[in-house]
Amino acid sequence: MAASGNYLSGAIWPLLLTGVLRTSGWHGVYLWLATLTFIIMVPLSLLLSRQVNDLSIELSDAQSNNRMGSLPFNAQTLTWLLGLAGVGCCVAMSMPQVLIVAYCVDLGYGPTADAEMLSLMLMGGVISRLISGVLSDRLGGVKTLLIGATLQCIGLILYLPSDGLTSLYLVSLVFGLSQGGIVPSYAIIVCEYLPTRVAGERVGFVMMATIMGMALGGLDVRLDL
User: Fold this and answer.
1) Crossing angle for the helix pair 182-193 and 54-69, nearest 10 degrees?
2) What is the 8-class DSSP label of residue 54?
3) CA 207/CA 192 separation, integer angstroms
4) Could you tell me which of 191, 221, 206, 17 has the C-alpha nearest to residue 116?
5) Mean local confidence (pLDDT), 6-32
């Protein structure tokens, strides 16, 4: 549920900042978002001070050790594999989110349609993350990740024949519904298989890898343009 917050904001802000997009372009939108991030997120982060009790940590570590013992490789290899997977999946994930604007412009659709499709995609991501959370409680992080990656692949394929406005709206929603739960699954896998004392560090590494993947996907689009 917490991981749905950024997708929920991504569904709201493109619509609220449509006027800024028309008058100041994407540079103006990013300046607004950077300012709002500083004003809102920094004060709220000060509220995150609650500590986990020792009993919960001991129980979690015992379960993690049992799961890790069932794997044919060590924790370091698991971390690198998750990082590599994060780069790969997020290069693919970033393409519709970054390319949808340029694609709609090429097809002659205005910035309002771009913002609406992006909002629809990210709102679908909210639903996907909530559903993926339910799945991960029952199936675990690995199976949830595999399901999400498979659905994301299908969603990307659906973009290939789509160039009409209605079909782009529908595919954007389908893509959002398919890929939202992938990135949180990495954090769940780390917490399932690694002890608490290193989980924060390893989650940070894997999340950095996913961000690098998002950046590489966007870089690829920029070079094409």
Assistant:
1) 100
2) H
3) 16
4) 17
5) 81
What is the SS3 assignment for 144?
helix
Residues in the chain, how many? 225
Q: How far apart are CA 7 and CA 85, in angstroms?
A: 21
Nearest of 27, 47, 171 to residue 103 by alpha carbon: 171
Q: Which amino acid is at 128?
A: S
Domain ranges of the chain: 2-224
pLDDT at position 7, please?
76
CA 1 to chain centre: 13
Q: Write out the two tokens for 74.
A: 């060590």
| Largest Cα–Cα separation, the chain | 59
Asked whether the beta carbons of 177 and 161 are under 8 A apart, the reply is no
Number of Cα atoms under 13 Å in the Cβ half of residue 47: 5
For residue 82, which of 215, 188, 3 has the smallest C-alpha distance?
188
Provide φ and ψ at 108, rounded to 5°: 95, 10
pTM value is: 0.77
Q: What is the CATH architecture assignment of 2-224?
A: Up-down Bundle (1.20)
Q: What percent of the chain has pLDDT over 90?
A: 20
Token pair 């199936």: residue: 139
